[in-house]
Specification:
mainly alpha
């Protein structure tokens, strides 16, 4: 059944996902500030966990769901995001974006396999527009963008893991959105620490304490005023809109990412970027409008 606030939720999700389109920038700032090796990502996840921990414990005392009981969901959505964040440090921004944002394909496949859904012609149209837009933007270097290094493979794996997490978000039943966002930070941080250990040869050694202290204010502001608010909407939306639609709306991040990287890094922004971004936006709008408006039975 279509949610009565379908349009509003869709717009909020597109805006929040779009805000993540500039996430590559704080990652680079943290790296330039000395937090190499993905430790900036770990710090953000840990800060989010610590900020939300008092509420988690209060909910636990009151007998409400806290997020501790959602390890699989947390590992999938948190782990998928961690792979996405780390890929920016190991490959080009462009490659990380396109390989991670194959998520509409994975969510459609997972919906068919696990949720027994049968996507109609509407999904085929919107998915074709969205992926066609991606191809137009990124095909100038290679016809088919295949993984070529560790960062590419991590970005691709992150998209698959995050897509599986969105399927979990669609079916998991929780007492509000808090348990989901807390599990995202808690288990995402654990995933990041373990994953970072195995990738130490690629990511480098742990930074100095001085580097953490010098970037602490930026990390706290980034986590509280950017990471948590947008994360709440992004992780709450799949239960209201469905994983498939959300994965298409997430592509607004591609549009913002392409434009922001073009402006801030002097990368080219020509007809490919304009046409591709337009196709992605059109695909997202049609995906929202094509969702059937079926009234619930009383």
């Amino acid at each position: 059944m279509r949610n009565p606030h379908h349009i509003k939720i869709s717009i909020a999700l597109a805006l929040s996902a779009g805000a993540w389109g500039i996430y590559w920038l704080p990652q680079r700032i943290l790296e330039d500030g000395g937090l190499t090796g993905g430790w900036g990502t770990i710090a953000q996840m840990v800060i989010g966990t610590l900020v939300l921990l008092p509420v988690c414990l209060w909910r636990k005392i009151k007998g409400r769901s806290s997020g501790f009981e959602l390890p699989l969901t947390g590992f999938l959505v948190g782990g998928g995001f961690v792979c996405y964040a780390l890929s920016f440090l190991l490959t080009d921004v462009v490659k990380a974006l396109i390989l991670f944002y194959m998520t509409p394909v994975w969510t459609t496949i997972f919906e068919i396999i696990f949720l027994k859904k049968k996507p109609g012609w509407e999904r085929a149209v919107t998915l074709s527009l969205a992926l066609g837009g991606l191809w137009v933007v990124f095909s100038k270097e290679t016809i088919i963008p295949l993984p070529q290094n560790a960062g590419d493979w991590i970005a691709l794996a992150g998209g698959v893991i995050f897509a599986a997490g969105m399927i979990r978000l669609e079916i998991v039943k929780t007492d509000g959105v808090f348990p989901i966002i807390f599990s995202f930070f808690l288990y995402g941080a654990l995933f990041n620490i373990v994953f970072g250990f195995f990738l130490a040869d690629y990511l480098g050694k742990m930074p100095t304490i001085e580097a953490f202290i010098s970037m602490s204010t930026f990390l706290i502001i980034l986590s509280i005023f950017y990471f948590i608010p947008t994360g709440i909407i992004i992780l709450w939306a799949p239960s209201k809109l469905g994983a498939g639609l959300c994965s298409i709306l997430f592509l607004s991040e591609i549009v913002v990412g392409v434009i922001s990287s073009s402006i801030l890094t002097n990368e080219p922004f020509g007809w490919r970027e304009i046409l591709g971004s337009s196709l992605i936006v059109i695909g997202g709008i049609l995906a929202v409008m094509f969702t059937p408006n079926i009234k619930a039975k009383t």
